[in-house]
Write a structure and sequence with these properties.
This protein is α/β, with parallel strands linked by helices and about 240 residues long. It has one domain: ComB-like (putative 2-phosphosulfolactate phosphatase). Helix 5 crosses helix 6.
Length: about 240
């Protein structure tokens, strides 16, 4: 197979992305989503606005509402955007609704994608396998955390890891993990007394390739719907 052309985008530029698109949010949206699926969740409905998320809960009885605004818990939501909190729950058979400041914003802005995935570090290799098995020419990696002022290196590091996988190059996991820890967002998670940004969330995010599924987003009857897809060749 010929080399894949790999493009990068941010929240500000991703609306023009077409074809295969991977939306990245390491801290924390798609780490949280991956742990939810690992805990048995069957579907996550993605919302761009708080009001939309609250309306979806009315439309989908029994769904758990998860998310944040600028990292902070939201009144009326069932859970914050915390992978370590979801990892402690039995989510078998549950549907979640997720609204976040970066990750879900990237997904809702990508309107032209024909194959749309979301990822963090914990299922990066499975995501790369899902891209490679489509025999495509190009892919866009959306680094949702990138903003002026030095924000977002955790997502750039994840994009670098994905690019190494897609190009068949060795990946330096130690360096990737160190970059995420040292990132401006990563440094929020170093105070055990801070319930909003617990260190356990960072540790969840740093479990590189822990899960063997990718997360595909499609249009659903009431909202964008994300579900896990098993990928042959991913780590067990």
């Amino acid at each position: 197979m010929d080399a894949i052309e790999i493009q990068r985008a941010t929240l500000e530029t991703c609306s023009s992305a077409e074809g295969t698109v991977v939306v990245i949010d390491v801290l924390r949206a798609f780490t949280t989503a991956a742990y939810a699926f690992a805990g048995g969740a069957v579907e996550i409905l993605l919302a761009g606005e708080v009001a939309e998320a609250l309306a979806l809960r009315q439309a989908v009885p029994g769904a758990l509402l998860v998310g944040e605004v600028d990292g902070q818990p939201v009144a009326g939501f069932d859970l914050s955007n915390s992978p370590s909190a979801l990892a402690r729950l039995d989510l078998r058979g549950r549907t979640l609704i997720q609204r976040t400041t970066a990750g879900t914003q990237g997904v809702v802005r990508v309107r032209r994608a024909s194959f749309l995935l979301a990822t963090g570090l914990c299922n990066a290799q499975a995501t790369a396998h899902a891209v490679l098995r489509r025999a495509l020419e190009s892919v866009t990696l959306v680094q949702t955390g990138v903003h002026p002022g030095g924000w977002g290196d955790e997502d750039v590091a994840c994009a670098d890891l994905l690019q190494a996988y897609l190009e068949g190059r060795p990946a330096d996991h130690v360096s990737i993990i160190e970059r995420v820890r040292a990132s401006r967002s990563g440094r929020h998670y170093c105070d055990p007394a801070n319930p909003v940004f617990p260190p356990a969330d960072l540790e969840c995010a740093l479990q590189v390739d822990r899960f063997d599924f990718a997360m595909q987003v499609r249009s659903g009857p009431v909202a964008l719907s994300m579900k896990p897809i098993r990928v042959s060749g991913s780590p067990a």
